[in-house]
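lol so apparently i was supposed to do this last week
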Amino acid sequence: MSLIEQIDKDRVPEHVAVIMDGNGRWAKQKSMPRVFGHKNGVKAVRSTIETAGEIGVKALTLYAFSTENWNRPKLEVKTLMSLLVSSLKNEVKNLQKNNVKLQAIGNLNLLPEKARKELNEVINLTSNNSGIILTLALSYGAREELTQAFQKISQKIVNKELMPEEITEKVINNHLYTFTLPDVDLLIRTSGEQRISNFLLWQIAYSELYFTDVLWPDFGKEDFLKAILNYQNRERRFGKTSEQIEKIDNE
Ligand code: FPP
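anyway here it is w/ farnesyl diphosphate bound
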C-alpha cells in the first residue's frame, strides 16, 4: 500500500507547523553558497503545501524567518527577502488553483517594503479561498508574540475593559497572532535538530513533535506523509491515562 493510502482520513492533524531547517547544510554538502539551499527550499515548501492540502490538513504554518534570523549576514537576509517576493509572485497561481488562503504572522513591519507589499497583495488575492490556511511566520518570535499579547491585555486592564480575573487561556489565545487558528497538533522539524527555536511556544503545548534528519530542500511528499503516519500511530492523551482514552474512543 502506498503511503498516501495508509493515511487515516479521519485522523489527519488539523494544524501542522513546520520548522524548515537545514538549507545551509544542504548547500554546504554540495559545496554551494547557503542561499542555494534556500532557493531549493522553495520546492519543498510547494510540495508540502500541496500534500497537506491533498490529505485534508486545515492549517499549515511554516517558520520562514525568525526574529533572530535578522542577525544573519546581510546578503543572506537580502536573498531570503527577494526569494520571498519572487516565490509569492511565482506561486500565486498555484495557491489559487489549490484554494490556499495565505496569511502571515510576526513583526511584519520589519519586512522590507517590497516584501510587505507583495505579501499583502497575495493575502488579499487569496482571502476568499476556502481550502487550507497557509500561515507564513516571518520575522516571527514566540516570546515577542507573547509579550505583545501581555501588553495588549494589560492595556485593557488599565482601560478597565478587562478585570485581571477575567484573563483566561482563551483571552490570551485571542491576543496571539494565531488567534484564528486551532492549536498545533503536529510540529515537524527537519535536519536532525531537536529544538523549538522560539516557535509557537503557547500553541504547541499539546503538540506531537516529529524530528527527521532529512534536510529541508530534500523534504518531499513522502517525507511529509511519513510524518503524518507517525503522528497517526501515536496516542494523544492530553494528560489522561491510556485507559481513559480507550474508554472515550469506545463511547
Ligand atoms: C533554515 O535553514 C531555513 C531558513 C532560515 C529559511 C527558510 C526559507 C525557505 C525554505 C525558502 C523561502 C521560503 C518561502 C516561504 C518562500 P538554515 O539556513 O538554518 O540551514 P542550516 O541550519 O543548515 O544552516
